[in-house]
Amino acid sequence: NGITMRTRVSLSSTILSGTVPQGSLQLLMRALLTVTGKRSVNKDAFDYYRRGEALRQEMLQYSTRGINAVMDSLMCPDYYYPDTKTMSKLGDDLPERAGRFFDEQFSRMNDGVLVIMGNLDESALKKLLCASLGGFSTSSSWAVRPRVSCNFRSGWSTYTVDRSESTVGDGQGCTSLALTAVRPFTMTSWCAFRIAAEALRREVVKGLATCGQYAEVSTRMQLFPVERVSVFVNCRPCPAEGLPIDVEPSDPLTALGALREALSTLFAKGISDADLKGYKMAIGHAMAAELALPENLMEAVLTRTAEGKDLVTNLQANLAGVTMADVRAVLSDLESGSKVEYVIK
Predict the structure, then answer these.
(1) Are 22 and 36 a contacting pair, CB within 8 Å?
(2) Upper half-sphere CA count for residue 152 (Cβ side, 13 Å)
(3) Burial of 150 per CB tally in 10 Å (0-12, 13-18, 19+)
(4) Is 199 helix (H, G, I), strand (E, B) or coil?
(5) N or C: which end of the chain has fewer CB within 10 A?
(6) H/E run at residue 237
């Protein structure tokens, strides 16, 4: 019927999200009521899911995300809830275990939030919700988040793996770096982190230009079990035909040297007032573009309701209020936090 549905489960929330054609919202609500209240195990569907999941996890481990997952596990070796899945956990008893889990989750619908976005008639939507919401089971129970060990490895670690023996990556040589730091979340600290990450990206790109490498820089904010920020840098050789005539794609260890020098330069000199002004403008445009996408705005709403963290209100004002000291504090935390280099040669 044109309805898409995705699931995401974390230590702090269970999320169902997706899209629905106009006119099919009532069908979606009926489906949600069935999922939350009248589920039954479909063995054939589970077997199909498990076979597909094995292929998805195989694809994942050969991607950049697979490398980043390994680095994250090295920075926090005793954290047992990574983003990637373990196929050994998808045993025959999973449907029964999942059923007990969802019974517990959906019995606390008073802890839930329903977010609907789109071109909707307000009056018709109110009538539909009044008719549907009473079908969800509720209780006065409440849940305590589990206590999770999340101790980070201190210092700077380097791992070098031969490409023929690596369990992650696409079989090509590459150089990757991960930095993580524990930082209490506020709108100001989040904006300062985005600026610091952009400064790091530009310094790395500049440092790698002379050795024929390009870098992909991604960021992550984690709110539970501990508030922290992470930066992942993944470097690969540029195609030789796209480089200047006097520049050749370097090997991963040469790129590692250039990457270290770029980070040392940034941590030592920081950024200038002119840089800060430019970064604020660039990050402001990027954040505005991100929030213009419905999926990102919905994610911000879910973060505010499930995690209690606001990523939207007075965003531009908070960004404008970021000082040089705020950015230096982020860079200092990243420098003194946990760092892992992962080289596939």
Answers:
(1) no
(2) 25
(3) middle
(4) helix
(5) N
(6) strand 228-237
pLDDT digits (tens, 9 = 90+) for 21-71: 988 999 998 888 888 887 888 888 889 999 998 898 888 878 888 899 899
The single-letter DSSP state of residue 48 is: H
Q: What is the pLDDT of residue 337?
A: 93
In the three-class reduction of DSSP (H, G, I as helix; E, B as strand; rest coil), residue 124 is classed as: helix
**CA 106 remoteness from chain centre:** 25
What residue has token string 């911000």?
Answer: 300
What percent of the chain clears pLDDT 70, i.e. is strictly above it?
A: 95
- Rounded CA separation 142/111 (Å): 8
Q: Are 199 and 266 spatial neighbours (Cβ–Cβ below 8 Å)?
A: yes
Task: Give yes or no for a contact between 74 and 157, defined as CB atoms under 8 angstroms apart.
Answer: yes
Q: List b or e across 50-66, with b for residues whose CB sees 16 or more CB atoms inside 10 angstroms.
A: eeeeeeeeeebbeebbb
Contact 334, 181 (CB under 8 A): yes
> Rounded to 5, what percent of the chain is helix, strand, coil?
50, 15, 35
Q: Hey, is 155 helix, strand or coil? A: coil
Under 8 Å CB-to-CB from 341, ≥6 apart: which residues? 156, 157, 158, 159, 175, 176, 177, 256, 259
Token pair 């991604």 is found at 218
Tokens representing residue 97 in the block: 């275990």
User: Cβ of 123: how many Cβ atoms within 10 Å?
Assistant: 8
Q: Please say whether the beta carbons of 211 and 258 come within 8 A.
A: yes
Q: Among residues 84, 58, 89, which one has the least CA distance to residue 73? A: 84
Token output for 258: 């250039």
* pTM (predicted TM-score): 0.85
- Whether the Cβ atoms of residue 301 and residue 114 lie closer than 8 Å to each other: no
| Cβ atoms < 10 Å from Cβ of 340 | 22
Strands (E), 12-53: 14-19
**Structure confidence by residue, pLDDT tens digits, 117-171:** 888 888 999 998 888 887 776 666 555 666 777 788 888 999 999 988 888 888 8
Q: Which two tokens stand for residue 345?
A: 């040669």
